[in-house]
Amino acid sequence: MSMLYVLIPLALMLLAVAVWALIWAIRSGQFDDLESHAWSVVLDDDQKPPGDPGADKTESDSGTGEAGSESDEGKR
Question: How many CA atoms lie within 13 A of 29 on its CB side?
Answer without folding.
Answer: 1
